[in-house]
Amino acid sequence: MRITKRMLMELRPRCPGCRSTLTRIILPETEWNESKQYLLHCKHCGHVFPIEDIEELVRKTLEEQAEEEEGGIEL
């Protein structure tokens, strides 16, 4: 699978700290990203986590989203 910048910017992986999906991925080429690696920023708890394997994170997040859509919501 080819991962585009747009896909990364729209992806909402779970925060490893609080499990919220109110997150964003910060790209390495972002001007103020001094670490020059992919970062996960949680807008809920405010933490920033380095992403060790971006491909694994994308795969895992897409799988989780597919499972949630498949399961639906019980009312």
Outline the biggest β-sheet.
3 strands, antiparallel
The general outline is globular
Number of helices: 2
Query: How many strand elements?
Result: 3
Secondary-structure content class:
alpha+beta
Integer-rounded radius of gyration: 13 Å
Question: Domains counted in the coordinates: how many?
Answer: 1
Write up what this structure looks like.
The chain has a three-stranded antiparallel sheet with strand order 1-2-3. It has 75 residues and is an alpha+beta fold. It has two helices and three strands. The mean pLDDT is 92. The chain has one domain (5-70). The relative contact order is 0.20. It has helices at 5-10, 54-71; strands spanning 23-26, 39-42, 48-50. Helices cover 32% and strands 15% of the residues.
Short description:
This protein has 75 residues and is of the alpha+beta class.
Q: Which features does this protein show?
A:
75 residues, 32% helix, alpha+beta, three-stranded antiparallel β-sheet
Topology at a glance:
Layout: H1 5-10, E1 23-26, E2 39-42, E3 48-50, H2 54-71
Antiparallel strand pairs: 1-2, 2-3
